[in-house]
Amino acid sequence: MWPLGLIVPLQDPTPFSPFAPERWRVALDHVRGAGFTAVELAITDPEPLDPEEIAQALEETGLRFCAITTGQAVWKEGLSLAAGEEAIRERTVARLQAHMRLAKRFGAVVIVGLLRGFQGPEARLVEGLRACTRFDPDVKLALEPLNRYETRLANTVEEALRLIERVGADNLGVLVDTFHANIEERRIGEAFRRAGDRLFHVHLADSNRWAPGQGHLDFAEVWEALEAISYKGCLVIEALPQPSLQEVLAVPERLRARWAARAR
Ligand code: LER
Ligand code: MN
């Protein structure tokens, strides 16, 4: 039903992907081989990357490059849209704009997760997001509500939508991650419905950040809500490779069987 993706890092390892960045081309083959049809690339800094090489690898595997996850630059370089220092805010906006240049060619969504920062006045965040949305109105940005233990800025869909309204741009939407929604939202299904046509991207993980089906989250509620809002984007598994990598790679088969059973 929905294209299903996995995360592949290109430059720095991430706990949410079982693959090593230096073997990203082989990783794409594994992703495809497991039945995924899309990929989210984890990119710290797009400047040194060769878009041609990425395009070629994607063409060989037939995978859709659906989103760029950008948060690794927080740990590596201390970037933040809400930072007190103007120079850091400027570097963060420039980095997101570089992501947008790469994303444009592939129709990928640029994710604003941890890059927004841990704390700071919302006005700084609004200003930074506005500078990005205006940079290229044809590239979509997705603000991801993150749980309270990761940031104080935009923990819920409602808070993200309020910020988006203040920014006032059609190319800024929401990424709902079921792991965060499970912590912060009253009802997960309601959160997806509230996002509605502003839902630009989805991360799937269970209550324990393991693959869907390995925790206690009710995904039927998620599928119902996605159908109700006629969601047309991708679903990307952002899970720890627990209890095993095999469980993560088995997700496409398991989910497709479940979706087929729902459709009957
Ligand atoms: C990023 O997509 C995310 O969900 C965060 O929890 C990463 O720290
Ligand atoms: Mn996420």
Biggest β-sheet: strands ordered side by side in the sheet? 1-2-3-4-5-6-7-8
Bound molecules: L-Erythrulose, manganese (II) ion
Number of strands: 8
Number of helices: 11
Terminus-to-terminus distance:
13 Å
Multimeric status of the protein:
single chain
What letter string, H or E per element, gives the SSE order? EHEHEHHEHEHEHHEHEHH
Main beta-sheet strand count, sense and barrel state: 8 strands, parallel, barrel
Shape: globular
- Mean pLDDT level: 97
| Radius of gyration from the alpha-carbon trace, in angstroms | 17 Å
Low-confidence stretches: none
Percent of residues in beta strands?
5-15%
Secondary structure class reads: alpha/beta
Helix fraction, binned, reads 40-55%
Can you walk through the features of this model?
With about 260 residues, the chain is an alpha/beta fold. It has eleven helices and eight strands. The protein has an eight-stranded parallel β-barrel with strand order 1-2-3-4-5-6-7-8, surrounded by six helices. Strand 7, helix 9 (about 220-230) and strand 8 form a beta-alpha-beta unit. It is globular. The model has no long low-confidence stretch (mean pLDDT about 95). The structure holds L-Erythrulose and manganese (II) ion. L-Erythrulose binds near residues 71, 114 and 146.
